[in-house]
Amino acid sequence: MKTELCSFCLKSGILCQKCSSKVKAGEISDLDLKITRLLLSLEEKYPSLQNVCFYKAVDVEKTLAILVGHGDVPKLLGYGGKIVKTISDETNKNVRVLEYGVDDRKFLEDLFVPFSILTINTIWLPDGTTETRVILRRKRGQQLPMDLKALKEIANKTRKMSLRVEIAD
Fold first, then answer.
1. What does the pLDDT look like over 51-75, one tens digit per residue?
2. Which end of the chain is more exposed for a tag (fewer CB within 10 A), N or C?
3. Measured between alpha carbons, how far is 130 from 155 in angstroms, rounded to an integer?
């Protein structure tokens, strides 16, 4: 697995000076360390994790968002969802796997899976800030699988994106 920390620090549990300074500077959080170590422990059982590039983990209420490199989302969702299920069981959180460094539309599509996005608009507010309006399409009887408030907070923490979400039937 590729990450900001060196693999020796992750495997030994003792951080070198370089990795320790990243943690002290706030570049890497304790949650990032925990998730990275968890993914590293799963590498032996699931070899596809060896090529996954881990960027960040964001924790909001009962939802955990894991940001991985371009094209790495299927590697974490593979094996019948066993990797995500293991992470969910270890952290007692719902897990969202998002791609790092993609455009806003792709980010929002990943965030609101299994709903499809009808439209995305930018709203300019009088105070000079912007808000992104997302209209989701719901199939009959389909419920939102995650807490909408938590998903908005994840978008704010990861992309500094303020969301206004509407659901159309």
1. 888 888 888 888 888 888 888 888 8
2. C
3. 14
Q: Residues of the chain whose pLDDT is less than 70?
A: 140-146
Q: What is the DSSP string of 88-152?
A: HHHHTSEEEEEETT--HHHHHHHHTTTSEEEEEEEEE-TTS-EEEEEEEE--TTPPPSS-HHHHH
Given its phi and psi angles, is residue 64 left (phi above 0), alpha (psi -120 to 50 degrees) or beta?
beta
Q: Parse the chain into domains and list their residue ranges.
A: 1-100, 102-169
The per-residue pLDDT for range 137-148, each reduced to its tens digit, is 877 666 666 678
Peptide bond into 114 cis (omega under 30): yes
The whole-number pLDDT of residue 124 equals: 92
CATH class assigned to 102-169:
alpha beta
CA distance 56 to 127: 31
Distances (CA, A) of 94 to 59, 60, 72, 140: 10, 10, 19, 23
Q: According to the model, what pLDDT value does residue 144 have?
A: 66
Q: Tokens for 81? A: 């969802």
Structure tokens at 45: 């059982």
